[in-house]
Specification:
This protein is mainly beta and 78 residues long. The protein is 0% helix and 24% strand. The relative contact order is 0.16.
Length: 78
């Protein structure tokens, strides 16, 4: 029996964000621009959120990690 308890803790590092302000292509020219701030409307990438979708094809209660954009829209990943 482990000193912590019966079940081991699972810890997964998600990173702290990108330090690089612009991603580059294979010729080292800029390929778009990254967000200047890590937060967008109070959320940042890899936050765990709970979304309730009332109707439509994906109607359900979702608890996922998110990838945010500056506009406030986001992708959720399972």
């Amino acid at each position: 029996m482990s000193p912590i308890g019966s079940a081991p803790l699972v810890i997964k590092a998600m990173g702290r964000g990108s330090d690089q302000r612009t991603q580059l292509n294979k010729y080292c020219f800029p390929r778009g621009y990254l967000m200047r701030q890590k937060l967008a409307k109070g959320f940042q990438t890899c936050d765990i959120v709970r979304a309730e979708v009332p109707n439509g094809k994906k109607a359900s209660l979702h608890t996922d990690r998110v990838a945010v954009r500056k506009t406030g829209s986001f992708n959720s990943t399972r």
